[in-house]
Design brief:
12 strands, 5-stranded parallel sheet, Rossmann fold, 5-stranded mixed sheet, Helix Hairpins, alpha/beta, Heat Shock Protein 90
Length: about 425
Amino acid sequence: MQPKILLVDDREDNLLSIETILAPGGYQFVKANSGRQALKVLLNEFDFAMILMDVKMPNLNGFETAALIYEREKLKHIPIIFITANNYGDENMFKGYQSGAIDFIFKPFNSDVLRAKVGVLIDLYRKNRLLFEQEQKLIAINKNLEREINERKVSEEKIRQLNHKLLENIANLESANKDLERFAFMASHDLQEPLRKIRMFSDRLFTKYRDVFHEDIKMVTRIQQAAERMQALIIDILAFSKISNDKSAFVMTDLNTVLKDLLNEMEEEIREANASVSIDKLPALSVGPSLIRPLFQNLISNALKYRKKDAPANINIRSEISTGINDRSKNLLNKYCRIYIEDNGIGFDQKYAEEIFGMFRRLHHNGEYAGTGVGLALCKKIAELHNGFISARSKLNEGSTFIVSLPLQHQEKSRALPTT
């Protein structure tokens, strides 16, 4: 399917020029001579990869048209590049980004720049469609499997066939997850520049006009706060993507040394929280050093964040050796080191013990506790990269215990962390 591009310009020669430059890319073009005509086109068609729109047009200019487009939920995902013959200055450029612009292209066109910018967005559009189609296929396959299992008693041969299909589904899901992680890294990296401009221009507005805006300055403050939250989320997504692609080797590591160095680094944070951290002697394990440190850091920071306001925070870290079944080694009995991070914080309902490790999953949405919902998902990913797992036990107002289970020994083929 050819990617569709909506071209919006009140001059026919400009539309022809853009179409001529981009024609070798094999795109499908839909043209509109005004902002109103563009809105009419979008009433009937939704599958556009992007919009190239002139800023200066009669009746509705490009900024106004973009604002109306993004009022519709079904159109918010379509990226817009504004085309202009003028350099409007920082404030008007900011207005363009605020109305939803991804980028600007200046007239006269530089053919290579135009093709490159359009090519990047078209590539993202194709990858996003591919991931969506794969997800829909996997959902359909899983639904079919569930229906077959529930509707009839299958034979041994049918069970074997279903298991084979399930393994294929898992492989497809893992492949889709890898693509999603790469896409998250790329998209988050590309978001850094427009976000930096948002923060820069909002800071400039705050500094220059805070005495003029009076009560309205709160709106600028909210922009700054929203940009800060978005930047924290982007940083966490990038960290998650980097962890998923970490190719460090397993080395024998003294966990006591790792924790000692980490607590020295977090000394100020611990003191401000009026907290105490006690550590029983931990064993040395074969781990990825660049992975195990952020795991402990996230769990300790989590305990500090969700401490009780009326009592000192106490965090205890201990370990024990236990046994369990490792399904990846033909059900052989393996020994695990279970590391417990216990706190006396506000806790949570045990029914959420599995959900909290989901990506962007947060139990508190009232703004009292800052965070992006990525930290515990990152901890789960690190444990899985070590062929281990993580779980939690908690009660409201009685504290929480996070349990990280890591194998004491690894098979020779697992000496290096799996790549993604």
